[in-house]
UniProtKB/TrEMBL annotation, chains A, B, C, D, E, F:
<dbReference type="InterPro" id="IPR011060">
    <property type="entry name" value="RibuloseP-bd_barrel"/>
</dbReference>
<keyword id="KW-0479">Metal-binding</keyword>
<feature type="active site" description="Proton acceptor">
    <location>
        <position position="34"/>
    </location>
</feature>
<keyword id="KW-0119">Carbohydrate metabolism</keyword>
<dbReference type="InterPro" id="IPR000056">
    <property type="entry name" value="Ribul_P_3_epim-like"/>
</dbReference>
<dbReference type="InterPro" id="IPR013785">
    <property type="entry name" value="Aldolase_TIM"/>
</dbReference>
<dbReference type="GO" id="GO:0006098">
    <property type="term" value="P:pentose-phosphate shunt"/>
</dbReference>
<feature type="binding site">
    <location>
        <begin position="174"/>
        <end position="176"/>
    </location>
    <ligand>
        <name>substrate</name>
    </ligand>
</feature>
<comment type="similarity">
    <text>Belongs to the ribulose-phosphate 3-epimerase family.</text>
</comment>
<dbReference type="GO" id="GO:0005737">
    <property type="term" value="C:cytoplasm"/>
</dbReference>
<feature type="binding site">
    <location>
        <position position="174"/>
    </location>
    <ligand>
        <name>a divalent metal cation</name>
    </ligand>
</feature>
<feature type="binding site">
    <location>
        <position position="65"/>
    </location>
    <ligand>
        <name>substrate</name>
    </ligand>
</feature>
<feature type="binding site">
    <location>
        <position position="7"/>
    </location>
    <ligand>
        <name>substrate</name>
    </ligand>
</feature>
<dbReference type="GO" id="GO:0004750">
    <property type="term" value="F:D-ribulose-phosphate 3-epimerase activity"/>
</dbReference>
<keyword id="KW-0170">Cobalt</keyword>
<comment type="function">
    <text>Catalyzes the reversible epimerization of D-ribulose 5-phosphate to D-xylulose 5-phosphate.</text>
</comment>
<dbReference type="GO" id="GO:0019323">
    <property type="term" value="P:pentose catabolic process"/>
</dbReference>
Amino acid sequence: MAIIAPSLLAADFLRLWDECKMINESEAEWFHLDVMDGRFVPNISFGLPVIEHIRKTTKKECDVHLMIVEPEKYTTAFKEAGADRLTVHYEACTHLHRNVEMIRQLGMKAGVALNPHTPVLLLKEILPYIDQVCIMSVNPGFGGQQFIPTSLKKIAELKQMIRESGYPVLIQVDGGVSVNNAAALVNAGADVLVAGSNVFKAENPTAAIAQLKKAGSFSEV
Amino acid sequence: MAIIAPSLLAADFLRLWDECKMINESEAEWFHLDVMDGRFVPNISFGLPVIEHIRKTTKKECDVHLMIVEPEKYTTAFKEAGADRLTVHYEACTHLHRNVEMIRQLGMKAGVALNPHTPVLLLKEILPYIDQVCIMSVNPGFGGQQFIPTSLKKIAELKQMIRESGYPVLIQVDGGVSVNNAAALVNAGADVLVAGSNVFKAENPTAAIAQLKKAGSFSEV
Amino acid sequence: MAIIAPSLLAADFLRLWDECKMINESEAEWFHLDVMDGRFVPNISFGLPVIEHIRKTTKKECDVHLMIVEPEKYTTAFKEAGADRLTVHYEACTHLHRNVEMIRQLGMKAGVALNPHTPVLLLKEILPYIDQVCIMSVNPGFGGQQFIPTSLKKIAELKQMIRESGYPVLIQVDGGVSVNNAAALVNAGADVLVAGSNVFKAENPTAAIAQLKKAGSFSEV
Amino acid sequence: MAIIAPSLLAADFLRLWDECKMINESEAEWFHLDVMDGRFVPNISFGLPVIEHIRKTTKKECDVHLMIVEPEKYTTAFKEAGADRLTVHYEACTHLHRNVEMIRQLGMKAGVALNPHTPVLLLKEILPYIDQVCIMSVNPGFGGQQFIPTSLKKIAELKQMIRESGYPVLIQVDGGVSVNNAAALVNAGADVLVAGSNVFKAENPTAAIAQLKKAGSFSEV
Amino acid sequence: MAIIAPSLLAADFLRLWDECKMINESEAEWFHLDVMDGRFVPNISFGLPVIEHIRKTTKKECDVHLMIVEPEKYTTAFKEAGADRLTVHYEACTHLHRNVEMIRQLGMKAGVALNPHTPVLLLKEILPYIDQVCIMSVNPGFGGQQFIPTSLKKIAELKQMIRESGYPVLIQVDGGVSVNNAAALVNAGADVLVAGSNVFKAENPTAAIAQLKKAGSFSEV
Amino acid sequence: MAIIAPSLLAADFLRLWDECKMINESEAEWFHLDVMDGRFVPNISFGLPVIEHIRKTTKKECDVHLMIVEPEKYTTAFKEAGADRLTVHYEACTHLHRNVEMIRQLGMKAGVALNPHTPVLLLKEILPYIDQVCIMSVNPGFGGQQFIPTSLKKIAELKQMIRESGYPVLIQVDGGVSVNNAAALVNAGADVLVAGSNVFKAENPTAAIAQLKKAGSFSEV
């Protein structure tokens, strides 16, 4: 049964209070917050002051996805803004081990995200030190993109690696997730489903979350 | 009589609809939107998706202040998000003339911002091509900082340069602006007063704007 | 039977018309055009205006090899200059999947080049989305260097990966290619042979191309 | 009487031999060679191998304009490629004095180029150590742009500075130079006129050079 | 029997003559010199002038570990300062093969260092061209850190790769090395033990080196 | 009467204890410590661990000159290492005012250094916030270079600016300072003389300092 983490990138930024309330009352377990700096990715989304406010509305887990360069510069600031989970990109970190250790020392769960072209075998040495891997199933930077189909195989391969390693690392999928592929993703090994447009652009977001939750619970395994 | 441009950096991001409504019904003429990328300044504030939403709430001028590196990468995107005025930093632009020309060609008013240490004489060649100069009277990156007192003299010096040049360039002051220094700023030459915390952290923001407007209208000149 | 792609890096830049005519009338199938920006590689070769001109002389495929950082900034420009095939470097791309998708969406064939030290296993996730891989058998930046012998094994390993993947991806070899190693390269799995100095510094370039073509057709496989 | 320096950026790159011959037989005194790296300016033009070839065709002065970052990395290489004069950009040099000293120590004349927005007063400390200043009268990166009219005043101001300094520094103008503004430029203080499209796109380039030469010789001063 | 390479990062910089004398008279075979530039790692340690002086005190091998970006800029300088062995970081080199070839051409032994998160399989193509691999068993930048336990497995995996390759490449371990883990490290495959604080902060550094030497010689293999 | 600040860049790094003792017992008032990161300048000298040790030997003022990029990253670390005065480069600081405020808030005196080509008029806005200006009279990066003669006029111009401003800012001269130009420098306005090779390469460094002190005290003004 997958954890559902709606991404607020597609929310109505004029009424975040209502959007947060909706998530709080929904079946979603986490808030997924996409921070983009215009450097690592070709978009600038939102950052610290917005997250600080969102944090005040919820007791659910705030899962912050840093699509930024030099994430070590802002690790403490995001902790203070309220992040419970902090994910950095493999492609953005020269000292990935130091980064995830710092995240954990500050009391957060540590995640590593992989761009679509980055193979999971590069995670071999870091798996023992992290709590989650975020498989980007679209290129990071924008909402509303189409799911990259080879991501399924990538998730399965990562699941295998994690099982063999014995470390309790969650697999998160981010990009193009919908009720149409949720079951397949969970079957491949996904533990957390991030969904943006498919939740917030739905007529009934609460129902969309419930459907995703349901779709993500019909695991064959 | 100075134009008042409340900066939404200090707004309640959970209720932007209400905050925008307040500005719309206030005496403020412009919305001031502070975009920070975590690279040019040590903070990540908000960017395109947030501004797109704010744009929908107002017919007042959206004055976007880019505290980002390589602003040319995002000039078109900010136009599309709804900017009427776009200000780039002198310190961030290798090709400042190209940048402001591009802003104007897209139909926006072009501004150049100066960090506190940057002297106004560096604007000599660019004055004919811009609509406004933003004098940073605090170091950009955070709200709630104290006004740097030598900014007054800097504004006066710039006013003199602009008068001699004959170009109709507005002077905007950003940082630590309050009812206490508004009159002095306007007397020194300021045409636009940006205020963040002193508006949004006030008990009555609408009244705070009105007071600022009033304070900024007692010009001796 | 390998495709021959003469690299114009070693051509006579005073008489490109004649050099292009020679290739057009030779057995070579592609023009290989090496763009160097002085940043990704320690040399600045030639770029857009030169390629635009070369494009006008030929109906053969223009295969442009970008040895530049941030290739996404110039993808559209190289399409407009006439590139049919556009290769970017693995080491230069944070968002490799986005880059090759953009190349294909513009109607070009997409390639990924690997520096000598970069292992082929890093291509695992990108193979389904590309048309060719360029194995650098010298360090990129200069013509006339000696072939790195371990490249043969690398080509063979990549061939194996491609066969197993089932995707129709061509293997291109670039650096120190000559009649002496052409057969071995093709036997190892090379589909496209790039040759610069060994063509243009030859007494009879047309004949050199023919010899390379012949050498590259004695495949044992 | 101004020196004429045709810029080969607008030449026919398929027939550089003929283009160079034309300049050699014309009234032009210098070859102007625009090197662009895609980093300092948003274009990649041509570099070392092209200049090496051009050098062989002429005994006229080769005036190389580096629109590149970190020009110190390539100073020696451009000397070896045949540059007689090497110009670096003020905006690209952290150690401008070191750069121009290195250029002179290698036996070349040293120049500093200014982007349109950069005021001439920034040259105060470097004037004693250079041979020429290049005033960009368009934004560097592309040929065929329109002359920025305030450049005239900038040239006049620089001329005044140079006269007062007593150092024999030439003023070069680059961008939108034509027979229409040549006289005005020379009157303002220009010593060297760079012209690209207005020479090479003319029906008769030799005549265009002669006309420019003539227009640039009717100085009022 | 492992080679012992004391790292002078933890030495008394006021009395380097004495510290070097101590190493010279000890059982240590190499001097290990950690150069940090404040860019690749978050510390600035020491560089060329310090190493030049140390070089004069010893005939033992000077093993210089460059924790710097763009090491190619300083390769020749470190040779001239007296390095016998020069190690660059995998994560810092776009053209790793060119870098190690340059090191060897200058007459030094070439090494590649891996940050804790970097898997050894990335060394596949470079192994034939290097003399040593430095496995960082702490995050580079500071002395006195705790050994990362999964480094043992990483060493064993690398040892296996080297054996299979047939190339005579030494494995060096750097970070948290002490008498407590020296035997385990050597058993896993380490050939060279770097030790800093555990030598220089010991009451008797000469004895500490001897103990390390002894601990590193009880190999089970 | 000028303050003498010997630069340890030219000291014997094997015997820093003795070198520091010599300065302590000399007429020199400050220790000048040149930190180079290989990025801002083309040399890597020494950094935090070396300065920490030097600090322990003296009660004289430790004047640290940061020839590094992004000095804000290391401001606190240099304070902790023992700096009393911290100088950053104008050319290295996007937020110069913030940097010097941070230095002062940590209890250090703040300085700004200018490369030879940087005009003093750029200091106009920062003078009220700093304690000293370092005029580089050679290009930073190496000891033993020749004094750039136009530095004298630059010092005089800065002295004039400082007098007119009324702020108590010291002028420091760094590069090629010797008994031959000390008097001229002080007459031009220098308050602090930095000397490296001319002290430490002298037969009698203590005497060299005394001579410099004496030469620097014959001010005509």
